[in-house]
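Students often ask why we bother encoding 3D structure as a string. The short answer is that it lets us treat folding as translation between two languages. Here is a chain of 117 residues written in the first language.
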Amino acid sequence: MSHGPGELLREIDPRGRLVRLTSDQWHSHILPRHPDIAGYLSAIPAVIREPEVVRRDAVQWQRECYYRQQDRPAARSLLIKVVVDFSPQEEPDGFVITCFFTTRMRPGEEVLWLPST
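And here it is in the second language, the structure alphabet:
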């Protein structure tokens, strides 16, 4: 999928919604706070496209959390968590707010989507 100006990626989630990650968000917010995710930009589209679960953020209702297991060389496997904001606006697109490695899903998040079996 082609990217718009200033976008690093755009991907369709399992419910058919467009999710975007801007270059500014990646370089100004995500990398300074989570430098260990730097080499995993190419893994983020799969987290959005094929998550293991999507949950509503425990604090901010308009944010959804996409989780997917990520194997890492010479390190234990962790989850990549991608937080997407779907604030009410003219476009129904979601925007990646942050992403990082985590050992567990946050308590209090409501399950919104699971893959069908």
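Translate back mentally: The two ends are 27 Å apart (CA to CA). Keep this in mind for the problem set.
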